[in-house]
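Our example pasted here:


***
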Amino acid sequence: MKKRKKVTTRIVTNYTPSDDAITEIVYCGNITELKTLEKRSTRISRYKHISKTEYYDTKTGEVRKHHINANQNKKRNLNKSFENLLYLINNNFQSNINELHVILTYSEKMDDFDKASRDFKTFWEKLNYNYSDLDYIRIIEPQHTGTWHIHVLIKSKNKGYLSIPKEKLEKFWGNGYAWVDKIKNNDNIGAYFMAHLKNIDVFEKESEKPNDTKCIVKGARLHFYPQGKRFYSYSKGIKKPVTIRTTYGKAKEKFNFDDAVFNRTYEVVLQHDDENKEERIVNHVTRSQFNSERKKKS
């Protein structure tokens, strides 16, 4: 009987990457993140990827079909999108006086993602006509009730104090309610939003701003994001983070890892689903984060 294989990760301690390990450095505002791969690629078997549906067995010369787990692929793609969104938010928003967080909700249940996207476009055209110096990051967030909220991070280019009355926002929106506030004293806004966008509060209600009553189910919201839809967008003035590739040895010359606010290594494990529970460590991934606004955690 053919062995079934799966790839998992687990946290390891007291691990230091080798100096020649490939390291990606992402500079995004006051946050700098590093991802280090011990091996350039993870070869977990004798098989070579050909396409989304086929792979090549180098030992037998056969071309075979992938057995694709759609849910795993969706989660993998979403996590990559969330990582890019986190970097984008942190590179453009740092709790400054020229920034706002707006939540747009519907007064009636609305479960059409494409309509929500069109509604936001109309809202932004009206807002931009009256406030012409604004940029945004827009996120369409699914609710477990089957409807949508739209989160909008807005900033003014002139860096002066930004204030938009709730009544005006609701007039421009025209589909329900608008909530507006400042994100204060937060040195990692990207991480703040990732928690909201991935987790579910079972007490959340349609047409209401999230409240302080919490019953959180971590990661539960991922299930409700539509396949193949881009759930976030941004205006032209939003700046992408700077990314460079180097080695871990070179990174150590730039950074004091004792000052990292986050530092964790995961080992990538290939497991065989058989009686012997055979497994093999195929790679190590180290993630580190530095925050220029925060002292090292004690």
